[in-house]
Amino acid sequence: MSTIGIEHGPTTHVATPGGERYDILNLERVKQAHIPFYPNQEDVTADGNTAAAIATLQMWRALIYPGFPITPSTKWIETVAAKVGAQKGTKKRVKLLEAEHAVADYMVGAGAACRDLIFSTATSSVGLDHMTETTRSLGASGLGNVMIINVYRATANFPLCIEGDPSDAMAHRDDGFIQICARGKQQIYDTVIQAPCLGMHPEVMTPTMPGYYGIKDSHRNSRFTVESDGAIHEFQDRWLQPCHLPGTINGDTAMGNCVTSRHFQGFKINQKRRIERVLDILPQIGADFEKTFGRPGLRFFDETAWPEAGPVDIAVVGMGPDYGTFESVREAWAKKNNVSVSGLALRLLNPFPRDAYREKLQRAKVVLVVNQAHHSGRGHLTLDVADALAGIEPQPRIVSAFAGMGGADVSEATWEAMLDEAKDALTTAPRQPYMVFHEGARL
Amino acid sequence: MSSFKEIALKDSCFRAGSTLCPGCMESVAFQNIGRVTDNGVKTIFTIGTSCAEVSTLAFPNVVAWGRGDDSSDDFGKSFSILHNVFESAPTLAEATRDVADALMDCGALDRKVQIISTGGDGGAFSIGLRTLLHTIHRRARVTIVILVNEIFANTGFQYSPATMPYADTSTTPAEGAPGNMNPPLDYIHLAIAAGAGMVAQLSPAHGKMFVKAIERSLEVEGTAVIFVPAPCISGWKFEDGQTVELALLGARSGVFPAFTWERGKGGSVKDCSIEASERPDVVDFLAMQRRFAHLVQRDKVTGEVKPKPGREQDIENLKGWVQGNVERMYSLANLK
Description:
Number of helices of chain A: 14
Largest interface: A-B, 61 and 54 residues
Oligomer: heterodimer
CATH topology of chain B: Rossmann fold
CATH topology of the largest domain in chain A: Rossmann fold
Helix content of chain B: 25-40%
Distance between the termini of chain B: 23 Å
Shape of chain A: globular
Number of strands of chain A: 20
Number of helices of chain B: 12
Radius of gyration of chain A: 23 Å
CATH class of the largest domain in chain A: Alpha Beta
Order of helices and strands of chain B: HHEHEHEHHEEEHEHEHHEEHEEH
Radius of gyration of chain B: 20 Å
CATH architecture of chain B: 3-Layer(aba) Sandwich
Number of strands of chain B: 12
CATH superfamily of the largest domain in chain A: Thiamin diphosphate (ThDP)-binding fold, Pyr/PP domains
Largest sheet of chain A: 7 strands, mixed
Structural class of chain A: alpha/beta
CATH class of chain B: Alpha Beta
Helix content of chain A: 25-40%
CATH superfamily of chain B: Thiamin diphosphate (ThDP)-binding fold, Pyr/PP domains
CATH architecture of the largest domain in chain A: 3-Layer(aba) Sandwich
Largest sheet of chain B: 8 strands, mixed
Number of domains of chain B: 1
Strand content of chain B: 15-25%
């Protein structure tokens, strides 16, 4: 049959659980068309949005970058547009849409069209909220080739502030995405590189949402290492194989359509099973990354000052760049108060690695959990940690703290005030189910 | 271009098995679109939530889509369907087009694809107006088919922005109230103004024109938008078997005139005179539907349709709206 002036004979095709898949895509041509942005490893000084943009640009599977600006994620699409525009002969394209919802819809169409390409965008706050109708669809879709970079900012725009806490990430924990928190430009870059390997894994097939703090990490510069495009390709190619299911272009298939109740129920169970597989696959990818590049790869959390064995007095659970302030005050405060203090900085937010936290935190007498997002109860992280520790005897005491709300810096004084409360809990139960700290004081 | 007879004999990818109401114009439209797209080019449909989606694709029950019973060695006969939320179909289509183009640009794909977005009133004129206009504005090379039944049929026949004046819907009731009093959205003008390459208003009741318009839409530069007046047997409340007759009468009386237009060429109104005296009386159109039962009644002896007592002025108002509608369509046809 003549299409673009070429006579085509019978096309090789295979039956799959998702319909016929035709052998009509030559992905090697996409790889060959990639023009490296970084032919060699290079140290770069840039902000977090730029680090994320560079990572997405280096992937040969990323051909189209849909986006819509919203502070503080805007520089991601600006950087992508500038670098794509400046690269002569590139096949990459920037797609500017009219709203975040359109971006999310576009990701569905593009991700379904070709499951072997990676489609990434960045958004934040109410932008992510605006996407929600479709992010929930995406979360269930099996389109692990979709990545939404979430630059954390509070969702409630009343009153409006461009800084903010991670309440957007927390509000979207049930969208069905794999959510990974990064802190620092190197970790942002490395996380974005690894995320598709996890999301597109045939046992996972779940979209990813790497995230980092707005302003604190998105807008502040630091030095980090950019690997060569070739090294990135070699790493990703080890994990990414052509999808076994058809897309809309290379398949005879229907996706997202109406199904009977019984089929829908099975689909939801399968969605749950796929995201559970993250807990096994993520450490494998992280270990391979570390072996390849010599830097820590994906993991459930970063550990601070945990002894090989034995108990610790206080264990801190936090996330984001403010955790670095804890790391800087920890040793002096512990020495002054004559207690041992360790910490866990959250990396994998969703699915929450309950068992890994349980194994670690059961060694603590007191667990100080620092929540930075608005929550009507004891705090999102507190509830997860309490769930992880359920049934342990003796039960570590949980001190639940809110700090850094609204994007406030969690200062050294604030950390010390929270640690003081944790120290008191070594001998007496916490005075309240949760406490709010701000600018060095318990309110 | 194929002849009408050639198209009529093609294998439609829309087949028996839907749970659409018997006589639904949407199924007639899909049958014909399915035949036109059996042209050797792989077809990808994107579909917003609508009757056309939920009543044709309840997998794994019988679905109304397929070409033949066996898998085909001919990729050109294959097709895919992608559904997402109500308003998403144009954006899904645009994304699919972009990916196909990008793959072709790299030499990774050497087969053409044709992409058709489908949706209804809600997906196009209400929650989806944004996506519709912006996909058109970006000149996405896709065909957008909008099945206009002037209501939100899938949720129970509520008012839509395309509802014609005085119509009784479940949210603009006519009992003790006048029915819909909002003039319909001028969606044809909006599509032209947004930058469409081709705009048509045609139902399969104008069979040859309809399939030719669909065929042309697959070749036109930029976005082609086909508004398909789709009498809804349950929402408009007419008798089984009258769908095509009602669609023809609606077009000829000036409620939704047959219209085709291409950028740079202009357009034309077909089968609908600008002179009211040369068109069927709109009251005959109203009388076939119980959604206008509050306005007109048929004399059981003579068969003559007359305004209900006290509704004479409403009928005159409606006729005025129809005349304005026809004149508007003729004006739009003059745009280049």
